[in-house]
Amino acid sequence: xxxxxxxxxxxxxxxxxxxxxxxxxxxxxxxxxxxxxxxxxxxxxxxxxxxxxxxxxxxxxxxxxxxxxxxxxxxxxxxxxxxxxxxxxxxxxxxxxxxxxxxxxxxxxxxxxxx
Length: 115
Known about the structure:
Blueprint: H1 2-114
C-alpha cells in the first residue's frame, strides 16, 4: 500500500508541476501578446501622425502652387501689356524716323539751293 501512495503522490506532484508550467507559459504568452499589441498600436499611431503631417505638407504645397500660378498669370498679363506697349513704341519710332528722314532731305535740298 505504501508504494501505491508514493506513486499517487508522485503522480499528483508531477501533474501539479505540469499544470504550474502550463499556467506560467500561458500567462507569459498573454503578456507577450499584450506587449505586441501595444507596440502595434503605438506604431499605428506614429504612422497616422506621419500621414497627417504628409497630408498637411501636400496641402501647403498645393496652396503654394496655386499662389505661384496666380502670380505667373499676373506676370503673363503684364508681359502681354508690355509687349503691346513696345510694339506701339516701335511703330512710333519708325514713323518718327520717316519724318526725320524727310526733314533731313528738305534741309539738304535747302542747303544745296543756297550754295
